[in-house]
Amino acid sequence: MRILRGFQILIPVAAALCFAGISAFQSSAEDQPVDAIEQSEIRLSVSGVFAQDEAAQIQMIYVDWAESWYLFLPAAADRTNLVVSYEIAGDAPLLLNETTVISGAATDLFSTEDTFKMQSGDSELGTLQVMQSNLGCVYVTLAEGGMEVLSKSKFLETTGTALMLDAAGGVQYQGTPEIIKGRGNSSWDYGGEKKPYNFKLPKKTSLYGMGAAKKWALINNFLDHSMLRNEIAFAMSRQAALAYTPDSVFVDLYLDGDYRGVYQLSERVHVHEERVAIADLEEDTQDINEKPLEDYPLRVAGGTLHGEENGSYHYYEIPNDPKDITGGYLIQFQIRGRAKRGEFVTNRGVICEICAPEYASKAQTEYIRKFVQELEDAIYSDTGCNSLGKHYSTYLDVDSFALGYLIQEITENTDGTATSFYFYKDSDLTGDGKLHYGPVWDFDLAYQNYSLAVQGPDGKLHYSVLPRDIYVRYLPISGYEPETAAETGIAALSWIRRLWEDDAFVRRTAWLYEQKMDAILTELVDPSGAIAQMRDAIAPAAEMNRIRWHMFGGKPYKPLGPQNGITYAECVEYIRKNLAARQQFLHEDFLAESIRCCQETLNRLTIDCLAAYDAEEQKQIAALQKMQSDQLAAVKTIYEAEAIMQEMETALAEIPRTLCYGDFIANGTVELEDAQTVLTYYTEIMTGKNAPITATQRRNGDVDQNGIIDVTDALHILLHYTSEIVGLDYPLPVKAAANPQAVA
Known about the structure:
By secondary structure, the chain is α+β, with helices and mostly antiparallel strands. 34% of the residues lie in helices and 20% in strands. The longest helix is centred in the last third of the chain and has 39 residues, at 568-606. The model is unreliable at 1-40 and 737-744 (pLDDT under 50).
């Protein structure tokens, strides 16, 4: 199995085009003057935009591709009372549509029109377009040199003051963030001048109705021309009732008065009572150690610092651990070389970054590493159980994992299981002791927004840009690299692909798709449904963002992936139509997978065990199997397929297998467990419980042939079993008791 990124052979060419596209984007979409003369002739800004900060200014920007000046105003701005400040060559004042504007004076001129011809004396200064958003805004005044710091590297930090308002002008936050810095990977590398950011507030604060926290993200969505891909995935997660789905709102971002476009202000993925609300192992560890955890040295076991060999792990040499180190943990599948701090690599090459605790001790790292390894061993075994006899469902919340996979598959997320695929595990004292999928994160390259190919088990290539194709199911293991797989021993077969060989997992996943995801998709893709509502909610702001960054069309404005459209509405419709086509295809695929698994299960239930039935019973089973096979071939829904299987299992339970007196549990031999099970059954009947029993159990268990199963039968079975152990013969059945004292 191999993954072809950018179709592999074309990587050098594609990369060259991408970088060329970025260069062209930067030269065309930065704050460019009309020409050197015009730049020297006028600079303009407006203040009085915010009642909370009257000195805050918004700069007029020249947008080269649109060949016009623009003033991008937030929703809260009062256009009837803005103070215009300008610098202009010569002594003549500025005229806007032949109306004189005095620098430093308030004017209501911008409330009268949106388009202005700018003049000064005999000089024509171009056209000024005024646009106003419908969103809240984040206005940041950076510390000296802050913009240069933010642009230079995502690892550098700065600070400043921030004012955050809702669309009506209500204050959400006003203060000084502790840290403002870059974030992301492809969103940073290919984001041009519209970079993504993280920021940290000095104390926990609720922003725009979201849960109070210090850490927040400003997602640029530059590679996503709809700007809705993450929000749609969040909506799927919430509707599917996955825990800890991030909340987010769309805002306009201003840095030092420069409008930077529409951003998605989002909760960050981290352990916190308002985020991933599990036990805070890092906080518990910090409480019993003297130094800040980040001050302890990073160590490596089983490999080099950046080697990421199978079985290796990183940890911090922290002297003291809490008594309970079973949770909470937050980990993600990670691409080779990307883990920021602690990580471990499974024996099959899965790279797991430990996101929480951020500074994991050796004992903590070894605990979660061992836990995940036992899970992986169970997944890759033929029985689903590891060498300890534990099934993978002992370690993994199967439903959440299946739902996580479904969201990745529905969206054809090219990151898939490679990165941003999160799991959390709570403490065994407060949780269920299992690994759960979530939260969902990072879908800007999903929904046919980036071209990748992966080879399936049939040797065929499957593509991330085809709505009627399976993609994520065939992705290799997270740390897989085709060029080095033979040397490193990294397996191509991912957890999901390996689990797809387990009929029980496939049937459950298919059932969850039909039970939850299909209805969610129906609501999303309706022409007036959720996606359309998301589009309409930010449309005016999206138009401002389009003008600022020319985010539609192909290269150079789309440095990665196919063109989605040439208008905002087209870019959103691209997602909606593809999801609609995907829904139809996935319904067909999961139905076919469900029928296949049901048919194979049916075969195992019948053909594989026919030897246990006599000739007449085999005829009954063959007829039943034929009828159920015909019914399966005609089903239209997964519910129908599962209902047929339940009917088959019930019907088979009513057909006795070949008589074997004493073999109450029907495993082919008479043993102590048969006597114990008969006694348990009899006790439940005596206490009024409706204990279930199959025809085979009734026939085999009634060893004294008196028509009922009671404690006497248990004693006879026990005598038979113990007699065999000591070499004696106590044959079954036995003569029925004359006056049985039993209750049927």
